[in-house]
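dude i think i finally got it to work??
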Amino acid sequence: CSDAEALRRSPWRDSDGLPEGPFTGVPFLLKDLGVLWKGAVSSIGSVMFRDFVAPFNSTLTNRYLESGVVIFGKTNSPEFGSLPVTEPRLFGPTRNPWNTDHTPGGSSGGASAAVAAGILPMVNASDGGGSIRIPASCTGLVGLKPTRGRTRLAPWLVKRGQGRRSTMWSAGLFATQPPCWMRQRVKSPAIRTRRLISRENSG
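look at this
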């Protein structure tokens, strides 16, 4: 079926009050590491920040919302994103849905496990040293790591470099291949990434 027909047939679609975008009504999760969602706890996987509630949205969060997704929670990550496995003391280890004796990798292990388990078709992730690539390999997903600086992580995780603002990490996603009513071909991660590229970084 066509993309338009697939979206119309999606049981997840509920466009009331949502902006029209390429992913209107699609459920979505944010990685609990550096991406702020106003009113939600942003713990960075750390006991130290277990009660920190975000006072505003990150630029990236706003762009996700503008694309029409429905954010309903956050995914587990290792403390400060420091390990290639997802086993924070705060929330405990995330298991690989394919084999719960194995890890889904990290630091985007909670994100990759959610998609691999079929909870949703795509999810926010980030990568500075393999944090998208490792979990994608562990869970058999499409993992997209954009070039550094292509997606804005303001106002946090931004540094000054060579006279311009550039992100330390890349914000990307995991995706899989669900049925026709919400088809997620490999081209869709590219579509979603184009929606997130900032004018400041588009050259």
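Confidence is low (pLDDT under 50) at residues 159-168, 178-186.
im so relieved honestly
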